[in-house]
Amino acid sequence: MRFISRFLLLSLCFLATETFAVEIPPSPAGGGWFQIYAPGDFAFVTDSRDFDINLQKNGFTIEAWIYITRTLEPFVWAENPAEQKLRDLWVVFEKADSYRLSILPNHRARFLLQGPGFSHTFSFPGHLLQMNQWHYLSVMFAEDYYQLVVDNKLRGSLYLNRIGLQDLNNTDGVFSVGGGEGPPSGDIDKKWLWNPFTAGMIDEVRVSDIIRYPKEELNANEWSDVTEIPEGPFEPDEHTIALWHFDFEKMGDSKWGDASGNGHHLRYKGDYLEVQPRNRLTTTWGKLKRR
C-alpha cells in the first residue's frame, strides 16, 4: 500500500510538471522574446517625433509577432461590485494618447487611432488569435486608407467620416510594448483601468515610416487579400524607425537595443522579467525578480 501511495504521488508530480512545463518554440523571427507575466509588465522608449509627427508624412507600418498562453477573460457583472471581474485587455504596442494595438477578450485584434476630439477603432472581424501559437500582426496607415494584417490575412479600407492619418495626435507620451489598457499616470507609470493581460510573449517589433505592403489601386471602399508573412528576423533599412529583436542585448540602462541604428532603445518597467533563451523548456515559475 505504501509503495502504491508513493507511486501515485510520483505520478501526480509528473503530471503537474507536464501541466506547468510548456515548450514554447521561437517565433518565426528566431531568437528570444519579451515574456509578460505581471500586471504592468511593459517596455518603453521615451517620446520622440519619430513615433507620431514623422509617421504622418508618408504613412507608417508597425508589425510584431505575438504568442498567447491563456484565454483572455471577459467582463463579469455582479450586483456586488466587489464580485465583478474586469475584462482582460492586452496591449501589443502603444503611443500614449495617439494609437494602440490591443487584443480583446474575444481574441481579436483592435487598433485605436486618437486625434483632437475623437477616437476611432479599426478591427479585424472574423479572425481569432489562437492560443499556443505565434501570430503575425501588422497595422498600416496611409494618407487615404489603412490596412490590418493578422497572420496572412489582410483587410483594408478607405478612411470614413473624414478621419485620416493627418488627424493623429502628436503627444509627449511614451511608446510602449506590452502591458494593459488604462489611463497613464505620468510619462512612465500606468494605473490600469482594466486588467492587463499577463500571459503571453511579444517578439520582433518594427516601426517603419512607409507602407510595407501598399495598395496599388484604391478602387473600392474595402478590400481583403492574402499576403506573405515575413520569414526570419526583420531587417532594418532606410525606412526603419525602430526595430527590437528582443535577443537579450543590453545598451547601457536599456534592456533591448534598437537595431535600426536610431537609438530608440527599450527600457523595462514592471515586477518580473523572464529571459527565454531559444528552445528552452519554460515553466510558470521560471521568473527573475527585478531589483
What does this structure look like?
The model is unreliable at 2-21, 182-188, 190-195 and 271-291 (pLDDT under 50). This protein has one domain (33-277): Jelly Rolls (Sandwich). The chain has one helix at residues 2-20; strands spanning 21-23, 34-36, 42-45, 60-68, 88-95, 99-103, 109-115, 118-123, 134-141, 145-150, 153-158, 175-178, 195-196, 200-208, 222-226, 240-244, 267-269, 272-273, 281-283, 288-289. Strands 2, 4, 9, 10, 11, 14, 15 and 16 form an eight-stranded antiparallel sheet that branches. Strands 3, 5, 6, 7, 8, 12, 13 and 17 form an eight-stranded mixed sheet that branches. Strands 1-19 form a two-stranded antiparallel sheet. Helix content is 7%, strand content 34%. Strand 5 (88-95) and strand 6 form a beta hairpin. With 291 residues, the chain is mainly beta.
Short description:
This protein is mostly beta strands and 291 residues long.
Fold topology:
Elements: H1 2-20, E1 21-23, E2 34-36, E3 42-45, E4 60-68, E5 88-95, E6 99-103, E7 109-115, E8 118-123, E9 134-141, E10 145-150, E11 153-158, E12 175-178, E13 195-196, E14 200-208, E15 222-226, E16 240-244, E17 267-269, E18 272-273, E19 281-283, E20 288-289
- What is the number of helical segments per DSSP (H or I, 4+ residues)? 1
The ordered H/E elements are HEEEEEEEEEEEEEEEEEEEE
Largest pleated sheet: 8 strands, antiparallel
What is the distance, rounded to the nearest whole angstrom, between the alpha carbons of the first and last residues?
Answer: 48 Å
CATH architecture: Sandwich
